[in-house]
Amino acid sequence: MDGTRDIKASDLLVSALENEGVEYIFGIPGEENLDLLESLRKSSIRLILTRHEQAAGFMAATYGRLTGKVGVCLSTLGPGATNFMTAAAYADLGAFPMLMITGQKPIKQSKQGRFQIVDVVATMRPVTKFARQIVNGGAIPALVREAFRLAREERPGAVLLELPEDIAEEMVHAPALIPPTTPRYAVCSDGPIDEAVEMIEAARYPLLLVGAGANRRRVIQELTTFVDRTGIPFFNTQMGKGVVEGQSDRYIGTAALSDGDYVHCAIDRSDLVINVGHDVVEKPPFLMKPGGKKVIHVNFNTAVVDEVYFPQLELVGDIGPTIAKLTERLSPSPNHDFSYFERVRAEVMEHLKEGADDPRFPLIPQRIVADVRKVMPADGIIALDNGMYKIWFARNYRTVVANTVLLDNALATMGAGLPSAMAAAMLHPDRRVMAVCGDGGFMMNSQELETAVRLGLNLVVLILDDSSYGMIRWKQAVGGFEDWGLTFSNPDFVKYAESYGAKGHRIEATEDFAPTLNACYEAGGVHLVAVPVDYSENKRVLIDELAQKVCLI
Questions:
Q1: Which of 24, 184, 285, 380 has the smallest CB count inside 10 Å?
Q2: Could you tell me which residues come within 8 angstroms of residue 172 by beta carbon, excluding any fewer than 6 positions away?
C-alpha cells in the first residue's frame, strides 16, 4: 500500500495480518464481524470455524506455542469475547503468543443501548500484555504491529484488539503497512558469565534445571550441547519437559508434584542449581533456604524474588547465547561428583518401569503411560488436558524430541487438551498426535470433535474414564473428607464419537489397549478411545517410601 488510495478498515486489518504472516484465524464470527469476515473471504488467511470460542483460543495459543509465531483467534462482542477469557489466561500464564480480535457495537452512534456490551478491553487487561479498542481505521497498521511485537517478545503472551462495527466498515486513507521484525535480545555480559563459571567449577554437586522459559526453539540445541560438554545432570519442570532429550544418560527426571518424589532427593543433595528458564507460574521445583544451596538464574528477564527463590547470581539475556557462552568456558570439573545423582537416576529409571506391564483392568496410570509411549514414535505429540493422569505422564513419559508433550502446568485448565491436539494435528499432519483427556475435561470442549472431523484431521483422542473429577476427588480423600459431590455419569463415548462422524472405541481388556491405538493411527481420521482407569495408585505420587529411602543413600 502506497498511501494514495482509500480502503475499507476491515480490508486494511486483514492486509496487516497477512503482512505479519498470519496463516489461520480460529474462531466464531458474529454479526459485528461481518465486514471483517468478508475481508477474510478475499484473503489468503484460512478461517478455522470452531464450536466454542474457548476452543478457538486454545488452538490459537497452541499454534503460537508450537511455531513461535502469533496465533490469532476471532470472536464477536459480549459473550463471544468473554468466552476468550480462559484462553487468554492460558496464553498469558503459559507464555504462548496469541492475538484475540473481538467485535463491538458501533462506537460513534448506537441504536441498541447497552445490549451485549461489555467493556472487553478493561476485562482483558489483567490477562493480556496489550488490549486496545481500534477507534481510528488509519491507526490499524501501527496497532497490529505493536500487538504482534508484544505478543512475541519475552515473556510471550496474549494481546487483544477490539474492532467496532462502524470502524470496520469505514473507508480510510490507506497508510503504509509496517514491516514485521524479529525479536532480538541482549546477550549476558562477560562479567556475570565469568562468575557463573567460577561457581559451577567450584560446586561439588551441580544440577541443571530446565524450566518453561527454556522451551523455545532457539534454546534447545544450546542446552543439549551444554549437557554433553559438561556432563552436568539435569532435571526439568513439567513445562520444561522435552527441551533436552529425555533419553540422555544425564537426565534425572521431572519434578512432578511433591518433595517426596525421587527427583527431589537429587535436588536436596545439590549445592548449586543452574536454573534455566525458571517461570514463576510453575510450582517451585525446589525450596531455597538461607545458607542452603546456591542458585544461578538464567533467563531472558531478571528473577522474581520471593521467600523461596532468591538466586545468588543472575545471567539475564537471550538464553541460547548465554548458555553457549557458558559452554565455551566450561569443561568437566574434577570437583564435580555425580555418583549420588547416578544412583538416584538408576532408581528413577527402575521405578518408571513399575506397572508398565501391569495386567490389571481397569488400567492403572503406569500401564497407560507405558503403552502410549510404545505407540507414539519419537516425534509423536501428546497434548494433555488437566487431571490426575497429567502427573503420571509428566513423571513417566520420556521424551526424545522437544515440544512433543504439550502440557499446561501454568493455568492448568481443563478443556484445553482436545483443542491443543487439534492445532498440533493441523500443523503436523504427517505425525502421530494424541489428545489425552480425563472424562471431565474432555466433555468441557467435546463438541470440537465435529471440528476435527470437518478439518479432516488425523487424531486420536484418549479418554481416561473414571466417572468423576478424579484429581479433586483424590485430594478430597487425602484431606480426610467424605467422598461426596464429585462423581457423574458419562455418555456412551463410542456412540458419542460416531454421532460426530468420528470412530469410537472402548477398551474392554488391558491387552487390547496398545493394539487399538496402533490400529487407529493406521486407519487415519479422528478416533476416540475410552479406557477405564484405576487411580488407586495415586498415593505413590504423593508419598513414596522407596523414594525416601533413596534420599538416605
A1: 184
A2: 6, 7, 8, 9, 12, 136, 137, 138, 140
